[in-house]
Amino acid sequence: MPAGSLTVICGSMFSGKTEELIRLVRRALYARRTVQVFKPALDTRDPATVIRSHNGALHEALAVESSASLYLSIAPETQVIAIEEAQFFDEDIFSVCQALADEGKEVIVSGLDMDFRGAPFGAMPSLIAVADNVVKLRAICAVCGGDAARSQRLLDGQPAPASAPTVLIGATEHYEARCRQCHRVPED
Ligand SMILES: Nc1ncnc2c1ncn2[C@@H]1O[C@H](COP(=O)(O)OP(=O)(O)O)[C@@H](O)[C@H]1O
Ligand SMILES: Cc1cn([C@H]2C[C@H](O)[C@@H](COP(=O)(O)O)O2)c(=O)[nH]c1=O
Ligand SMILES: [Zn+2]
C-alpha cells in the first residue's frame, strides 16, 4: 500500500487557498495520478461542478452534502483527494480524512482556520493538528496593507457583531482580509 498523507492549506479569505489547492491538483495530474476534487454543497458561490478562486482559476469538482457522501463517492483507483472549504463539512470530515490517508490516499484539504470572529472554524483546527503538512497562507490587509490572517465580515460597512450566524456565503460584498490589529468584532 502506498504511504498516504494529509496536507492542510489554511488561512484567511483571499489568502490563496483555492489557488494553492488547484496548483497541487494540476501538479498531481501532470504526474498522471488519479484525482478527485470535492466541495461542500453548502458553498453555492459557483456551479456545483467547479471550484473557483477569487482571481478566476477554475477546476472541476463534485459538490457533496456530507462527509459520508464524500467518502462513498471516492473511486477505488483514486490516488489524490482534494477537498475545498473543509470548514463547512460536518465534524466527520476529520475521521474521513484520517481514514483516507491511512488507506494510502494523498489527501489535500483547504479551508478557513478562523471564522469572522477570529475563532477556530469547524474541523479545521483538528485537521491541522494531525496533518503531515500544513500550509498557512496570508492575504493583504484591506486596511493597512500588512499580512492578513483574519477575515472581517462587514454589515452595512460596519463590523458584524459576534452574534451573527457563523455561515454567510459570499466574497467581497461581505468580507475583507484583515491583520490582527485591524480586525474588529463588536461584542453583542
Ligand atoms: N486582500 C487580498 N489579498 C490577497 N489577494 C487578494 C486580496 N483580495 C483579492 N485577492 C485575490 O485573491 C486571490 C486568491 O484567491 P483564492 O485562491 O480564491 O483565495 P482563498 O481561497 O484563500 O479565498 C489572489 O491571488 C488575488 O488575486
Ligand atoms: C470568515 C467566514 C467566511 N465564510 C464564508 C464566506 C465564503 O463563502 C467562504 C470562504 O471562502 P474563501 O474561499 O476562503 O474565500 O466562507 C463564512 O461562512 N463564515 C465566516 O465566518
Ligand atoms: Zn491591518
UniProtKB/TrEMBL annotation:
<dbReference type="GO" id="GO:0071897">
    <property type="term" value="P:DNA biosynthetic process"/>
</dbReference>
<dbReference type="GO" id="GO:0046104">
    <property type="term" value="P:thymidine metabolic process"/>
</dbReference>
<feature type="binding site">
    <location>
        <begin position="167"/>
        <end position="170"/>
    </location>
    <ligand>
        <name>substrate</name>
    </ligand>
</feature>
<keyword id="KW-0479">Metal-binding</keyword>
<feature type="binding site">
    <location>
        <position position="182"/>
    </location>
    <ligand>
        <name>Zn(2+)</name>
    </ligand>
</feature>
<dbReference type="GO" id="GO:0005524">
    <property type="term" value="F:ATP binding"/>
</dbReference>
<keyword id="KW-0862">Zinc</keyword>
<feature type="binding site">
    <location>
        <begin position="84"/>
        <end position="87"/>
    </location>
    <ligand>
        <name>ATP</name>
    </ligand>
</feature>
<keyword id="KW-0547">Nucleotide-binding</keyword>
<dbReference type="Pfam" id="PF00265">
    <property type="entry name" value="TK"/>
</dbReference>
<feature type="binding site">
    <location>
        <position position="179"/>
    </location>
    <ligand>
        <name>Zn(2+)</name>
    </ligand>
</feature>
<dbReference type="InterPro" id="IPR020633">
    <property type="entry name" value="Thymidine_kinase_CS"/>
</dbReference>
<keyword id="KW-0808">Transferase</keyword>
<dbReference type="GO" id="GO:0005829">
    <property type="term" value="C:cytosol"/>
</dbReference>
<keyword id="KW-0067">ATP-binding</keyword>
<feature type="binding site">
    <location>
        <position position="175"/>
    </location>
    <ligand>
        <name>substrate</name>
    </ligand>
</feature>
<feature type="binding site">
    <location>
        <position position="141"/>
    </location>
    <ligand>
        <name>Zn(2+)</name>
    </ligand>
</feature>
<dbReference type="InterPro" id="IPR001267">
    <property type="entry name" value="Thymidine_kinase"/>
</dbReference>
<comment type="subunit">
    <text>Homotetramer.</text>
</comment>
<keyword id="KW-0963">Cytoplasm</keyword>
<feature type="active site" description="Proton acceptor">
    <location>
        <position position="85"/>
    </location>
</feature>
<keyword id="KW-0418">Kinase</keyword>
<keyword id="KW-0237">DNA synthesis</keyword>
<dbReference type="GO" id="GO:0004797">
    <property type="term" value="F:thymidine kinase activity"/>
</dbReference>
<feature type="binding site">
    <location>
        <begin position="11"/>
        <end position="18"/>
    </location>
    <ligand>
        <name>ATP</name>
    </ligand>
</feature>
<dbReference type="GO" id="GO:0008270">
    <property type="term" value="F:zinc ion binding"/>
</dbReference>
<comment type="similarity">
    <text>Belongs to the thymidine kinase family.</text>
</comment>
<protein>
    <recommendedName>
        <fullName>Thymidine kinase</fullName>
        <ecNumber>2.7.1.21</ecNumber>
    </recommendedName>
</protein>
<dbReference type="InterPro" id="IPR027417">
    <property type="entry name" value="P-loop_NTPase"/>
</dbReference>
<feature type="binding site">
    <location>
        <position position="144"/>
    </location>
    <ligand>
        <name>Zn(2+)</name>
    </ligand>
</feature>
